[in-house]
User: Fold these one by one.
Assistant:
Number 1:
Amino acid sequence: MILPIVAYGDPILRKKGIEIKKNYPDLNELIANMQETMYNASGVGLAAQQIGKAIRLFVIDASPFGEDEDFEEGERIVLKDFKRVFINAKIISEEGDEWAFNEGCLSIPDVREDVWRQPKITVIYQDENFENHTETLEGLPARVFQHEYDHIEGILFTDKISSLKKRLIKKKLDNISKGKVKADYRMRFFK
């Protein structure tokens, strides 16, 4: 089932997610709904906060990036295969010189800004079967993970841009929070 995506301005987007256990109600259905919602909105990631749940869960499918001609062959293959469910994820290390990439967010339609992030991270998480994983991610997989991870920490990509850029997009953000935005997918606005 396609769920409405929570728009900028809703306090749920600022809530740090709580860890979940294997017996979380209807978890498989929730994951399937999140994936369907992400695909319907042409996203590459979706966190639980974006559908109104303050839990430590997000889904990623970076395969659309894998088709992009701007990436080298090896990176395209990595992106094509980067489809995962992340439960109770934590970043345990970040390495390398920060690099900028133009990011957007389904909760903040029509706003894109360069965000600086470290290129290599090591993470721990559980998958949809609650099996434990430790993984090192680099490049765009690391970036997509960090963006979604920020959501479960109550952080938005707009928090990571300069104060000047924030002032420049303030009107757009205000309009989004008031429901004055058009998106190609269902959104839920805070009243």
Number 2:
Amino acid sequence: MDRLLLVEDDGSIVKNLTAFLCSEGFLVKSTAEQQKALAMLEREPFDLVLLDISLKEGNGFSLCSAIKHDYDIPVVFVTASADEYSVVAGLDMGADDYISKPFRPRELASRIRTVLRRSRKGRGTVLEAQGLLVDTAKGTVSKNGRELYLSALEYRLLLTFFNHRGTLLSRTRLLEELWDMAGEFVNDNTLTVYIKRLREKIEDDPQNPQIIRTVRGLGYRID
């Protein structure tokens, strides 16, 4: 049974969401405060954290950063803060998904399971291409022995290429893969920006990319 930690300061949401998720087969514990959440994580194992941005004590962004620094646990934001800045900020600090309130409970349960599958699938795997190493257990990326900093969406994009290595990925397919994580804010222009940023970090010559190759008019691939 997957164990979820719900960090939410609205009592009615905690009550209703806990009842629903328990009916879906999850074990749910909850708190409304940042420090209590960290104490609970230290005392007992959890498989995933559901996190609101607005908390009685602290805030969801700082809590997400603390969790990602100290634990190998997926974090899903469930919050009413649906503006683009909040979504991008949450993903850039390592959140695995971002779901806006109000939400459909069954969609939330489905997306929780998707994040859990991704998390487990990637554990213990080291991926390599032309001196680029991706350690999915540690969530690190390095090039020729030097660690690189990638945002959460850049990292997810890179994993998408590695998970479909040798396969031509159209822009539409890439957008579909990334939608689960960032919703409608990943559009065609955003994808162009993230591919450019990713190449600037991982390629020896971003103007002549050898890792993420462009197949003109069709899409991209990693060989």
Number 3:
Amino acid sequence: MKLPVYLYGHPVLRKTAEPLEAGYPDLKQLVDDMFAAMYESEGVGLAAPQIGKSIRLVVIDADPVAESFPECAGRKFALINPEIEILDGDTVSRPEGCLSLPGISENVPRVEHIRLRWLDTDMQAHEEEISGYLARIVQHECDHLEGKVFIDHISAIRRQLIRRKLNDIVTGKVAVDYPVRYAPTARRR
């Protein structure tokens, strides 16, 4: 099934996602469908709120950026009910984009070292320390589970400078080459 990516302005992107319980119907199929949507959109991560489901589920395949960020090589996983613990308070700013905010990229400060706890699709617990760009991807996707998007981490001045682009997304005035769901208020041209 082709899952559309919900765009900025859709209310589901601002909700705090609910924990995913054991026995969630067709979980493995949902994970497969999310990976397919992520690949079609040419992303490296996708959170369930981005496909309209307010549950604590994230898929990541960071391998496409491994040439620039070796810590991402072979890193493909589904995260159920992920929890992040900050291990290093120093932040590094790097450009980020998001499938839900097409055409926008901003420098976002994030910590470089985290401890991640999560369940896999068999509901088995995992814990791992993660650093570098992979830690950034995980933090970005987990933000979606808290009702946040990457522009929430930029200055008010930067948000003001991209206000028109944000408005174009909210009102449906952006063209995207992957399946999307616009905000309910969008009036597509």
Number 4:
Amino acid sequence: MLYDIFSIMAPVLACAGIGFFWARSGHGFDPDFISRLVLYVGAPCLMLSVMASVELDKQAFQRTALACILVAGLMALAGSVIPRLLGHDVRAFLPSFMFPNVGNMGLPVCLLAFGQEGLALALAFFMVLSLAHFPVGILLAGGRQAGGLKGLLRMPILYSVFLSLGLLWFDWQLPAPVFNSVELIGGMAIPLMLITLGVSLRRLQVRQWRQALFYSAMRIGGGLLVGLLVVWLLGLEGSERGVVLIQASMPVAVFNYLFAERFQRAPQAVAGMVVMSTLISFVTLPLLLYWLI
């Protein structure tokens, strides 16, 4: 069992370690460029290639997407109440409650733990959050400076979602040249996500570590509790249950820091939450996998 868990975590740690030591050695790396490359090119191609190749129950896909909406909604409620009670800027801390790292960490862990079916279900979770993360996250951080609906319509992932749904619901097939291309390009997404995560861990600094520790515990522990409630309400079992619990208990997404930095919405506090929650997840995630597997 321990060997199986190590086999799941080893690729995650290896790729993140490459990014960490690459940044530590002083080599150039632009996380914003790589993140945009993954978001606008890699992730849409990954989504299409997986949906075109995996046999997935449509109802399971729908249930996972619904679970994501419920988890995000309940965490948004917590993120609206807890910072306000503590006298903190709700708009600075709310995105970290709502938007965990379901891409950089969630996708590879679900793939390694549950195979292609797990990746497909994790992508359902990822695509729902992605469609909300960028307009909502930017709006919370930047107010009227955000792109709103225009920004969303410029995101290729929106169109890859519709194509993916067509592949799933109508049993469409991609032509071989298209499938081979998106499979090859999509293959870069997960390693680049993890390497970027490692670079961010090296470059971001933790200030006010007690605050960062508290909010990190709220993100991971609160996410797990909300996930347990949602899987119970929806009656999820097997891979669906595992994927929802893993994705719900992921650490704070790096994109939250990028938005906070861009619009100067408490960037140091958000950076601390990204680093602290990610480090905590390297301990909590193996424990969660042990319980699930």
